[in-house]
Amino acid sequence: MNQVLESMKSKEILNSEAMYKQIIEYSVETIFIHLESKFLYINQAGADFLKALKGEIIGGNVLSIFSEDEKDLIRERIEQAMCGEVTQAIEKTIIRFDGSLVDVELYCHPVQYGDKRAIQTVLRDITIRKETEKMLQDRQKLASIGQIAAGIAHEVKNPLTSVKGFLQLLKETNSHPYLFTMENELEKAIDTLQNLLQVSKPNLHEEPIIKIDVCKELNSLMLLFQDKLYNIEIKMDVRDCDKHILGKKNLYLKAFFNLMKNAVEAMPLNGILRIEHYFQDDYVHVKISDTGVGIPKEKMNLLGTPFFSSKTDGTGLGLTQVFTTINDHNGQISVHSVVNKGTTFHLKLPQNPGGM
Ligand SMILES: Nc1ncnc2c1ncn2[C@@H]1O[C@H](COP(=O)(O)OP(=O)(O)OP(=O)(O)O)[C@@H](O)[C@H]1O
Ligand SMILES: [Mg+2]
Q1: Residue of 193, 262, 312 best suited for mutating to test ligand 1, as the one with most atoms within 8 Å of CB
Q2: Which contiguous run of DSSP H or E holds residue 50?
Q3: Same domain, yes or no, for 116 and 12?
Q4: Among 204, 219, 236, where does a domain finish?
Q5: Residue in 139, 193, 257, 319 to alter for ligand 1 test, most ligand atoms within 8 A of Cβ
Q6: Domain membership of residue 328 as a residue range
Q7: Could you list which residues have their CB under 5 Å from ion ligand 2?
Q8: CA distances, 190 to each of 154, 157, 252 (Å)
Q9: Which of the ends of the chain has fewer CB neighbours closer than 10 A, N or C?
Q10: How far apart are CA 336 and CA 322, in angstroms?
């Protein structure tokens, strides 16, 4: 009876070992087992990740995937794990067999491998996490630069406005052709500062909340571009025009204008500008699409960041104004873009923006 029980037990152990092996082998994470710095085992995901065949890895030195100055620390970690100490996950850059570098998070713990006590190390690729963190940092940096710039804009705008006033007086008493050019240039500078202030301190421009007929406004805005659009076809698909929204009209108009301007600028030679309006799920939807240059994937996260521009004469404030306005009205905005195919900005505007 005892023998039967024992053989059932050892069968169970064998089964669970085989199962454990399978779980490790088919895990999507890199898992390897090593002893005295030698690879004893690596799963398939690990071999793929390290860019080598299992046969090339097994028997090799584990420390070879770390840079010289990291080796002591890794050795120390392995020793700690060997003594059964709980080691926390650490972030390191490893060198793969093809020489490429990759950021990983790794942790080690002791395991029984056959009759030996060895170390199991798990590596997790954190490239995307690192990139996202960096992007977020860049974005925050840019946003604070934007805030500083807005402070300066505020200070500079007042003296410029008074210069403009004096220039006008001068024009009345002493007309000179240069004065017109000076006034034009000055107006451009004041306009830029005004835009900057509007996106960083929109509350400075208190505007009443009124009823807006979005269809009507889209139709009139589209006409503003007509003289520039000789090679661009405009397609208007506006439905549900009886649905109006409440909001700050000038801010909304500027946002629609900025989106149409970007769309037109994305099609320097020719293309189709499509403007859609419809009502669905309690929201007024506005879509502004172009068949232009598109936005590369890596730039998508930067859209709306103050001063992000790929244009030689762009200020990079257009989309900041759009995002600020839509967010302030509790709307939603999404962007779909394919390089060399085109871009769609999809706005979902609530009929009533709530507590603004
Ligand atoms: N429809 C679009 N197609 C392709 N790229 C776009 C589109 N809309 C925005 N972009 C990209 O986003 C960037 C930022 O746009 P944004 O409107 O904020 O600034 P800008 O157009 O460069 O300058 P401006 O302040 O004069 O509007 C653009 O420079 C462009 O690279
Ligand atoms: Mg723009």
Answers
A1: 262
A2: none
A3: yes
A4: 204
A5: 319
A6: 210-350
A7: 262, 318
A8: 10, 6, 21
A9: N
A10: 16
